[in-house]
Amino acid sequence: MSATADHAEERTSPAVRLGFQPEQVVQEIGYDDDVDQELRESIEEVIGSDLVDEDYDDVADAVVLWFRDEDGDLTDALVDATTYIEEGGSILLLTPKTGRAGYVEPSDISEASTTAGLSASKSVSVGKDWSGSRLVTPKAAKSKK
Fold first, then answer.
1. Is 23 left (phi over 0), alpha (psi -120 to 50) or beta?
2. Is 93 helix (H, G, I), strand (E, B) or coil?
3. Residue 106 vs residues 41, 60, 93, 131: alpha-carbon distances, Å
4. How many C-beta neighbours within 10 Å does residue 86 have?
5. Which of 6, 42, 71, 130 has the smallest set of CB atoms within 10 Å of its CB?
6. Radius of gyration of the chain (CA)
7. Which of 37-41, 53-57, 116-120, 124-128 shows the lowest mean pLDDT across its residues?
8. What confidence category does residue 68 fall into, taking pLDDT thresholds of 50, 70 and 90?
9. In whole angstroms, what is the distance from residue 47 CA to residue 83 CA?
10. CB 43 within 8 A of CB 77
């Protein structure tokens, strides 16, 4: 029965749907009192450890970026986030849903992502108050030395 329960968990866990995997190092940026704690716990459960904070001084496999309209320039935030992850890594950009304080227009997300050199792979609802956009960094061309 546990195998069936595990597969059911994979279908329903937002962290699994968003592409998080065991043993990944996931850095969290923009944490505040308004973040979705259930999503954070789901990610930590999948990766098997705590999220690392903005002071983490090594590269991460992925970044969770909580961003609200009043947080400044989204392009700058995304460019900064790319410096924390490995080439080919992903950024989960989380913004408040329509009608919530701090809502960010989808066109602003698209423009900022493109300007930052990121590609949007999918957008999902990740909770009652937050929407997520999974953004990926381009994989570097492999050079033969």
1. left
2. strand
3. 26, 26, 12, 10
4. 14
5. 6
6. 15
7. 124-128
8. very high
9. 21
10. no
